[in-house]
């Protein structure tokens, strides 16, 4: 089973914030694929379905961002998923411009505490991830306030397009493989040209 995990913080307080970009992509996937998150497993809201002929699980860990690995590690072990081929983690990234997508087969946490915790719990950084740019933190802002803050209206429009594009990228990874998805979507940005 292919596990697609979007990162974020639970609760209405964090709905639509920069740090919840991963949750937002899972929401788009739920809508476009008709997959409800109708059960909880290992502290994640989950839903099962298919992309093409592939069985998938959509997951939104409810542990709060910094403990995402507790939930994802438990899901991977329970379903005996091949970490390098059957896990895709979706997260926000302050080092990418607003709406820019970046797929990778592996890599460091890059300062992202959710990814860092996942790497610690899996014991490897060899898992696919899709990072979505939320823009750089202004110098006068504290990082926690920035990532748990909301987008301005212009950036929100860009992000809405990015979430839809990211959902398409996820579908491409599952049906056509990571390499093809990287070629198609790493050049993509949701910003208008």
User: Largest sheet, described in full?
Assistant: 7 strands, mixed
- The total strand number stands at 7
Distance between the termini: 37 Å
CATH architecture: 3-Layer(aba) Sandwich
Strand order of the largest sheet: 2-3-4-1-5-7-6
Helix count, DSSP H or I runs of 4 or more residues: 7
CATH superfamily: Peptidyl-tRNA hydrolase
Oligomer: single chain
Q: Could you write a compact summary of the structure shown?
A:
This protein is an alpha/beta fold.
Structural topology:
Blueprint: E1 2-6, H1 21-33, E2 39-41, E3 44-51, E4 54-61, H2 68-78, H3 83-86, E5 87-93, E6 101-104, H4 113-122, E7 128-133, H5 143-147, H6 153-176, H7 178-185
Parallel strand pairs: 1-4, 1-5, 5-7
Antiparallel strand pairs: 2-3, 3-4, 6-7
What descriptive keywords fit this protein?
single chain, 193 residues, alpha/beta, Rossmann fold, 7-stranded mixed sheet, globular
Describe the structure.
This protein is α/β, with parallel strands linked by helices and 193 residues long. It has a single domain (2-185), classed as Rossmann fold. It is 39% helix and 21% strand. The chain has 7 helices and 7 strands. The protein has helices at residues 21-33, 68-78, 83-86, 113-122, 143-147, 153-176, 178-185; strands spanning 2-6, 39-41, 44-51, 54-61, 87-93, 101-104, 128-133. Strands 2-3-4-1-5-7-6 form a 7-stranded mixed beta sheet, with helices on both faces. Helix 1 (21-33) crosses helix 6, helix 2 (68-78) packs parallel to helix 4 (113-122) and helix 6 runs antiparallel to helix 7 (178-185). The longest helix has 24 residues, at 153-176. The chain starts with a strand and ends in an 8-residue tail after the last helix.
